[in-house]
Design brief:
A hairpin with a 2-residue loop joins strand 3 (about 30-40) and strand 4 (about 40-50). This protein has no helices and eleven strands. The chain has one domain. It has strands at about 10-15, 20-25, 30-40, 40-50, 55-60, 70-75, 80, 85-90, 95-100, 110-115, 125-130. The strands form two sheets. Strands 3, 4, 6, 7, 8, 9 and 10 form a seven-stranded antiparallel sheet that branches. Strands 1-11-2-5 form a four-stranded mixed sheet, with no helix packed on it.
Length: about 170
Amino acid sequence: MLSAIAGLMLAASASPAAADFRLCNNTASRVGLAIGYKDADGWTTEGWWNLPARTCETVLKGNLVARYYYVYAIDYDRGGEWMGQAYMCTRDKEFTIRGIGDCLARGYDRSGFFEVDTGEQRAWTVQLTESSEQPKPPPVSSTPPAGATPAAAAPPVGGASPTAPSRNQTQ
């Protein structure tokens, strides 16, 4: 299994442009992305978006429906991952998964997502960077906000032209 962060870090910032949730790959590698969030229908996880080096992708269009979003990303070229302690369901192929419980029993993988607190902004951009480009961020809390419960598992959401990451995963 890939090591926890394998020298990769993240930075998040508010976006003054369109009301969307965007992810930017500011590394020299190709990156696969999955996201998780809670909306009026409950928890959802989606993946995979494949971002070439130094590009951005809008993964959710329109005003944000939640304050907290969750991201899991894999560096396809150099190995490693951006991860956290909010465990949600994923799979190796394109997916949209409703619900966060019993991932393995339902035939899914279980991956650790990191939390993004948008501060209830209408739009947000997450910047994925290499550790040499960014100071280490504070640890991500695995405790979701009141009314949320993704630390045990979270649902996947479908992606814009996602494809499966090539990796072996051990639980």
